[in-house]
User: What shape does this take?
Amino acid sequence: MLYYLFQFLDERYNFPGAGVFQFISFRALGAVATSLIIGAVFGRRIIDKLRQLQIGESIRDLGLEGQMQKRGTPTMGGFIILAALLIPALLFAKLSNVYVVLALVSTVWTGMIGFLDDYIKVFKKNKEGLQGKFKVVGQIGLGMIVGLTLYFNDYVKIRVYAPRLLSTSNVPDVYTDIKSTLTTVPFVKNNEFDYSSLLFGLLPDSYTWIVYVLVCIFIITAVSNGANITDGIDGLAAGTSIIIALTIAVLAYLSGNKVFSQYLNIMYIPNAGELVIFCAAFVGACVGFLWYNSYPAQVFMGDTGSLMLGGVIAVLALAIRKELLIPSMCGIFLAENISVIIQVSYFKYTKKKYGEGRRIFLMAPLHHHFQKKGYHEAKIVTRFWIVGIILAVLTLATLKLR
Assistant: This one.
C-alpha cells in the first residue's frame, strides 16, 4: 500500500524522497523492521491475551526431561507470526504482483488450517485436533490454487535473451517472455528441467498442467507437514524457517535481477524480486516470535504457525522455480519427516513379522531421539540451526557448482 502511495506522491507532486520506495532493498528493510516491531512489541500483548483466555498447551507425557514443566504454556502463538508477516507485506510489497498475492493467500490459507487444528485441541479438548484427512484436503486445495495460477496466469513467465554478437555493443537486449514449466535442477551444467518431459511422449504437452499441479500439491503438503513435525522443541521450527527464508530471499533477488541472473547463468523470472519484501517480513516475523519462543518458551506457535511456515516456504520455492532445491534448503524438515516415516514403517513391519513392533530411533521425530539420548533442548536446537546454515550455504553454492 505504501508503495502505491509514494509512487503517486513521486509522480504527481515530485515529493522529496518518495522515489526511494521504488527500490526493493529499501522496502525489504522497511518490511523487516516493521515485522520485528510488531512481533517483539505486540507479541507480549498477544501472549497475555492467550494466557487470559487460558489457551494453554496440553502436554502428552512422552517421558522427556522437562516436558511436563511446559504444561499450560500459551499456544496458538502463530498469530504473532501471522500479524508480523501480513501487515508489513501488505504495507511494503506490490499487491498487483501475482507472486506476492500467492504468498499472501498461502499464508492465510495454511494459517486457517492450523487455527482449526489448534481450536479443536484447545476449545474442544480433543488432543488429536483436526483429522489428518481434512488437513490434507486443505493442503491439496492450496496446491491446486498455486499450481493452476503458476501454470495459467499470463503474468507468470520467464525471460529468454537472444545471444549478442558483441558484448560491448550498445544495441538493446533482445528478449522474449515465454510461458514455461522449466525449473532449476541443482549441480547440473544445463540446470533446467521441463515438467512436460514427465509425460514421456505418451500424452500431448497440453496435459503438462496436470503433472505440474500434482507436483505442487506434493511439495506443499510435504514441506508444510515437515515444518509441523519439526515444531517440537523451543525455537527449532522458527529458527530453521529463518535460515530457509533468508536463502529463498537471496535466490528470489538473483532470479528477479537481470544482471545477476545473466552473470550466474540462471533463469531470469521477471517480477520475482518482489518476493524479497515478503521474505524480509517473514524473517522479521519469525525473529520477533523467536524472542518469546526461545528456550524456555513463553509461547508455542501451534499448528497455526507451523503449518503456515512450511506451506509458505513451499509456495515461495515454487514461485521462483527452485522447488528441486528443497531437499537441501529444507533438509531439517526433510530429515524430521523421513525419521517419522522410517520409524512408523519399521514398527509396522516388525510387528507384522515378529508380532512385536521394533524401533530404529529412540523416539521420532528426530529431535526427540536426541532428547532421549540426554541432549539438552538448547543444544539440539543450536546444532540443528548450524546444520541448517550449512545446508543453506550448500543450496546457494548450487548457483555455481554444476
